[in-house]
Structures are given as structure tokens and as C-alpha cells.
Amino acid sequence: MSYVSKPVRKKDAMALVTGKPVFTNDLAPKDCLIVKILRSPYANAWIEEIKTGTARQVNGIVAVYTYKDVPRKRFTLAGQTYPELSPYDHYILDQRLRFVGDAVAIVAAETEEAAEKAMKRIKVKYRVDEPVLDMHKAKDGEILVHPEEDWEAKVPVGADNKRNLCASGVEESGDVEKILGECKYTVDRTYHTKANQQAMMETFRTYCYKDHFGRLNVVSSTQVPFHVRRILGNALDIPSSKIRVIKPRIGGGFGAKQTSVSEIYPAFVTWMTGRPSKILYSRYESQICASPRHEMEIRVRAGADENGIVRALDVYTLSNAGAYGEHSPTTVGLSGHKSIALYRHTEAYRFAYDVVYTNVQAAGAYRGYGATQGIYAVESAVNELAHMMNIDPVKLRELNMPMEGEPLPAYQDCTTAPSCTMDQCMKRAKEMMNWDEKYPYKDMGNGKVRGIGVAMAMQGSSIAGIDVGGADMKLNEDGSYTLGLGCTDMGTGCDTILSQIAADCLETSIENIVVFGVDTDISPYDSGSYASATTYTTGMAVFQACQEMRKKICALGAKMLEAEPEEVNFDGEFVFTDEIHKVSLKDIAIKGTCGNTQELQVTRTHCSPISPPPFMVGMAEVEVDKETGSVKVVDYAAVVDCGTPINPNLVRVQTEGGIVQGIGMALHEDVQYTEKGKIRNNSFMQYKIPSRLDIGDVRVEIRGSYEPSGPFGAKSIGELVINTPCPAIADAVYNATGVRVRELPITPEKVAMGILKQKLEKK
Questions:
Q1: What is the mean predicted confidence (pLDDT) over 341-368?
Q2: CA of 247: how far to CAs of 182, 543, 564, 565, 716, in Å?
Q3: Could you give the CA distance from residue 649 to residue 6 in angstroms, rounded to a whole number?
Q4: SS3 at position 630
Q5: How far from 83 is each of 156, 170, 460, 463, CA to CA, in Å?
Q6: Per-residue pLDDT for 763 more than 90?
């Protein structure tokens, strides 16, 4: 193969490094109306009266809309396949406000200055009610976040708005209590992860216009163009056929843009006024009213026998949906399914969960999608179990880890691992970290101690039986190919990866593959870029489309050679029967434009019935200052199994990026609320994400397997890579200090107070 498994440069690399202006705001017309949102200062309030007359008189104001002006139709902002598992609990604007930052009014103006001035003149009389801010008090509490009668759950997920439940359920196999009772070693621990901001470089932004047919055209930085089209149709109460969604280049998403955060407001303005409009979220808005990771509290009970075999796991997850339920019923599932499955000998398991509404910013999708929280909890519990048993945590995992052909308990999308090199990943990571020499810690002799920790992880490759990948392959008259895609490249390089697959399938140069981005009017349907689906699912659609394209090229070439299709071959340049009798691809392409009845265009759709997991081992070395509690990552060694790596360079940078985000979650990122429900961390001055100085040496290697159901044996990589840092770092800190921190982030204060407590207990 010429391109698959080769480090091909991204197709848009030069455009990115030269600053070519192709992002959403770069493309917006200069005469766009500026859309701004007046936001609630209260976590739980009713609008008793709202006066906009003075605001409307501001020079340059075109429109001011309140809850009285919008359709009274519930919808969800979750970018999911219909019927969405997320509840229909939104209006465009509502009389009831459910968190600090909820939308009160929409202002459309000729200039930003006019919009800002008008917002200050809107007079609102609020009835302020007591909010529910603590997720532990939400279930069956007196304060209801969504008491409305038109609230709707399209799918039975255990939701009950009159109990503040967005989802609830129990899954179990075997007698958990019996097996735990038989285990020589058991742990019962509770772990807490807070909300995390995706902090992508490009904030949420959308512009809209009406075309000459009167249709609403939406250009947006989104991961889910086809889902956005449906969401807007529901919200505006118009047919989706009247809406077109176009995705330009995206400056990062990490799951945040799987929620339709920004689109609805300019779409409504343009639909009502007929004029182009745009909204650009500030960093402040992206921090207080976006779509962060779900806060979760996870209790883990784990039991092992005297030989180190993990026999039972009991996981209970309490997840904080926030004010609205987008992605909440689905993220919680991964906290159990992707963590329990890591232990192949598990004889009995129980996974129970409650997802509750509260009066804080609504959570959504973030890389890892619930698996991150669940793996942190289960892997931390297993590390604690290893310490209790006085066994090396690497050894404990070697006894229990997933193996090819062996069971994946609680993982119904793939009950056994069809492809897996977790054992090789662990072996190589151990070598890279020099584990045997460094474990558990090394005193540096200067008040600092270095400790190491380990974790393993898995994710999925698309949502089995649901996610759809689409590819359209067309032969152009000059012999080049146009690859039309419905998936979304958000910086991941999927346009390049899919071009590599196409180039090898068609035996042509990658420069001969022209990639066309997402336009819902033109592109084949694709669920979007989420759930680690693009390479695996859309890649298979590309593979199948190329195979069919080869048949069409051979058929027309055979006709031109006056031969039968089965008598010819195709080498990427010529269709031939022998060295003498051949016709070039360009001649075939030209023939396709004149007097031809054989279409040289193929559209293929693919959906996989399984979701084969990629696997990863991560090992962290940290240095702790025992006087201050400061924790610094010195070294991080990661080894991944993503099946066949289509582009090793992109696998590496995806892995590095995920690890860095995981380091941020483990040590730095801390969403905090005031007693009235206002987010304190509303800028990068208060919300710390790791810089290059905070991440130490991050080293990545690949130990690929071959996944039969994926293109050229490929699986996924995008989400998996964020899942190991939190438990690995937490155990490294413990090994260095003896302090076990079970609530992220692991701040210097927590470590220092833990060390102080140890000293006091020794006295």
C-alpha cells in the first residue's frame, strides 16, 4: 500500500500554518446582523415582566425577541440520531430560567455596539426561586427543574421530570453480593469528577442567510451538520427541507460542538427577518453556557480472589445533567460499559445509575463521553485493590486485562474482543517507563518524591447498529476523483485519512483525491464526527464506494476495449486486457461525459453491527513537592492499539492531545460555583488548562492489531486517549506521598493537607 499506514501530511496543513481564512467568521458576509443573548443572572427564576421598548429604540437595533415571540415547541439540542435518547426539554426562549446564563432575550443589531447597548436597556422583573445546585439533593427533591407538562422523553431511559431524573437504570449479570462475599480482597470507594470545559480554540459560532429559494442556510462550526438540520427544524417548527447546513473548517470541538449550542439564535433571527445574521460566543459565554463534561460521582465495589483475579464489580454512577438533558442519558452508560469490560474474568457485575437535573450549566459531550469518568473510578479502585493485596498493579492487570477473543463483560456492542493487543501495550509501556526500577517511588533527596502509576482503557468505534457513515465517490473528466463526505473534520485530519483509504483503494495519488466537505444539500448522510466513528465507519463507506467505483471504471473501460468486464484489470492508470490493449483512466473519464449511459459516481452508506474497542495503556511519572503539595507530570508513556493505524502521525498527535487534556482534568481544571449557582471560572484566568510547561515528556507508541470489520483493519483513536491519565496520575501521587485523592482535580492543597494529616496521625 502506498498511503495506508504512512505518515501522510494533512491536506489542510499548509492552509492552517499560513492562516488561510476559511473558518466560520471568515466566511460570514460583512452585512450580517449581530446576534447577542441577554442571559439570566439567576439559577432558578421566572420572568414576571420583560420590557423591550427602550431597547428597540436604540439606533441600529433590528429586532428584540422574548419568550413571547418564539414557537412553543420542545426540542433537544443534542446532536444524536433520531429518536434521540436525550429528552425534549428546550424552548428557544422560555419564561422559566434554569441556570445562571440561560437565555432571556435575543437581540439582533447592525453593530455589536448597538446590540450591547440594547441589552442594557431591556428591563426584566424576575421572580427568583431557590435553586437545586447539589446533585445529591436533586433526585425526588422539592425543587423541580423541569415541572412542565410538555416535557418529553422520546425513548424510555428511566427519565421522570417530576423526580428530576433525566435517566435512571440498573444492569446486572450474576450475583454480585454472593461473589463479593466470596472474594478475599474487596474495596468500596467513591470517586468524584467535576465538570470540565472543552476549551477548544474556536468558540461556538454560526452565521445564517436565506437563499433565493427562501431556504434557511446555516454555516456553522459544528460536528453534526445533519443533526443540526433536524434540531433547527424542530425548534423553528419548519420542515427540514427548508434548511441547509454547511460546515466550514472547525477550530476544534472535542465533543462540545456535538451540541447545537449557538445555531438556534441566528437561525431564528434570519428566519424572522430574512436578513443574514451571525453569533460569535465569547470565551466567557463558552465557559458559562456551553456544553462541558458531566460531573459524576461514582461508587465502585470490587472484589478479587487470593490469586489476583477480579471476580466482581459493582458500579453506581450519579451524573449531573445540569439544567437540560442533552447527552445525559447516553454519557452515563459509558461510565460503566467501558470500565467494567476491562476485566475479562468478571463473574458478576452490576451497573446502576441516576442522572439528575440541577440548576447549573447543562453538560454535554466531551471526548471520552462518560468513559473517562468511569475508567478513572474503576481503574483507581483496582489500583487501591492492588495496594491492599500487596501486588504490583501492572501484574494485577496482566492477570485480568482484555485479550483477543476473550469476553468483554457488560459491553454489549462487542461481547468478545475481536482484535486486541492490550498485553503488548502493557509490556511495551512497562519497558518505556522502566517500571520495575521506578515502582512505586523514588525519593529525590530534595524534598521531592517521584512516583509512578498505571491505568488501562478502552473505548468504542462508533455506536453499534446506529451510527451511519456516508461517502460519495465521483470520477471527474480529467481523471481525478471527488470524495464527498458527510462527516466532519474538526482538526482530527479525517479528510486526509479518508483520502488515504481512497487513494490506496483506487491505486492513485492522494493528490488526485479532491475532498468535499459537508453540505447537507449535497453530501451523503453521515451521523457526524463523534463516538469515534469517522475512520472506522465512514472509512468503511469510503472503502466500499471505491470498490464499486473500480467496477464501474472496469465496465466502461471494457466496453471501450470491446471486451467483457471480467476480462479486464485496472491498475489505477489503465484498464487493460494485456500490455497492448488498454485504455487510460483519463480517456474513460472523458468517455463518461459523452454518449455514456454508465454513471461514474458511487454513493455508499455503512453501519456496523458491532463497535470494536481500541485499547490503551498509560503510565505516568509525577514529581511531588512534599512541602507545597505541588504535582508535576515528569513523564507519560502511552501505547495504543487502534487496529491498523491509517496515518501514524495523526494517531500520535491525537494520542498526545488526549493525554494533555487528561492531565488537565487530573491536575488543573476545576469548575466551581458560588452559593447562588454562578460559575467562578469564567475565563482562562480562573480556569487553568495545561500549557507545554505542565505536561512533561509525553511519549506515544502504537501496537496495532487487525480489526476485520474496519477499513484495512482500522479501529478508532479519538476518544480512547483521554482515559488513562486521571487514574494513572492519581496512583502515581499516592505512590509518591501515600495520599489518596479521590476527587479531581488533584490540587496542591489536597495533597499538602493529606501529607499534613499523615504527620498528625503519626504523632
A1: 98
A2: 56, 23, 43, 39, 22
A3: 8
A4: coil
A5: 11, 22, 21, 14
A6: no
Spell out the residues 6+ positions from residue 623 whose beta carbon is closer than 8 angstroms to its own: 444, 448, 449, 450, 631, 632, 634, 736
Class of the 414-459+612-763 domain? alpha beta
**Mean pLDDT score, 460-473:** 97
Q: Three cell numbers at 568?
A: 479486464
Report, as an integer, the average pLDDT of 502-528.
96
**Span 168-215, pLDDT tens digits:** 999 999 999 999 999 999 999 999 999 999 999 999 999 999 999 999
Judge if 14-131+198-288 and 414-459+612-763 fold alike in CATH terms. Answer: no
Superfamily of domain 14-131+198-288: Aldehyde oxidase/xanthine dehydrogenase, a/b hammerhead (3.90.1170.50)
Q: Average pLDDT, stretch 520-549? A: 96
The string of pLDDT tens digits covering residues 270-289 is 999 999 999 999 999 999 99
What sign does the CA torsion over 335, 253, 84, 606 have?
negative
What letters, b where the CB count within 10 A reaches 16 and e where it falls short, cover 37-46?
bbbbbbbbbe
86: phi > 0 → left, psi -120 to 50 → alpha, else beta; which? Answer: beta
d(CA 215, CA 123): 34
Mean pLDDT of 311-326: 98
Cell 460570514 -> residue: 28
Q: Determine the CATH number of domain 463-606.
A: 3.30.365.10
Indicate the DSSP class of residue 4. T
d(Cα 194, Cα 680) in Å, to the nearest integer? Answer: 14
Name residues whose C-beta falls within 8 Å of residue 390's C-beta, 6 or more positions apart in sequence: none
Q: Which 3 state secondary structure label does DSSP give 612?
A: coil
Q: How do 96-97 and 45-51 pair as beta strands?
A: antiparallel
Q: How would CATH label the architecture of 132-196+292-400?
A: 2-Layer Sandwich (3.30)
pLDDT of 762 reads 85
Mean pLDDT of the chain: 97
Q: Is the peptide bond before 745 cis (omega within 30 degrees of 0)?
A: yes
DSSP summary character for residue 531: T
| 565: its cell numbers | 468486464
Instruction: Give the integer Cα–Cα distance in Å for 415 and 405.
Output: 9
358, 321 Cβ separation under 8 angstroms: yes
Q: How many whole angstroms separate alpha carbon 553 and alpha carbon 584?
A: 10
Query: Nearest Cα to 188, choosing from 309, 312, 296?
Result: 312
Q: How far apart are CA 758 and CA 35, in angstroms?
A: 55
Report, as an integer, the average pLDDT of 92-115: 98
Phi first, then psi: what are they for 116, rounded to 5°?
A: -60, -40
Instruction: Name the residue ranges covered by the structural domains of the chain.
Output: 14-131+198-288, 132-196+292-400, 414-459+612-763, 463-606
User: Cα 89 from chain centroid?
Assistant: 22
CA terminus-to-terminus distance, the chain: 68
Contact yes or no for 135/89 (Cβ under 8 A): no
Integer Cα distance of 514 and 502 in angstroms: 10
What DSSP state is assigned to residue 534?
Answer: I
Taking only the tens place, the pLDDT of each residue in 114-165 is 999 999 999 999 999 999 999 999 999 999 999 999 999 999 999 999 999 9
Identify the band that residue 397 occupies on the pLDDT scale cut at 50, 70 and 90: very high
Residues 254 and 251: their CA atoms lie apart, in Å, by: 10
Report whether 80 contacts 327 (CB < 8 A): yes
- Taking a C-beta distance cutoff of 8 angstroms, is the pair 744, 637 a contact? no
H or E element in which residue 126 lies: strand 123-128
* Cα–Cα distance, 338 to 666 (Å, whole number): 19
The percentage of residues in the chain with a pLDDT greater than 70, rounded to a whole number, is 100
What is the spatial distance between Cα 46 and Cα 695, in angstroms, rounded to a whole number? Answer: 45
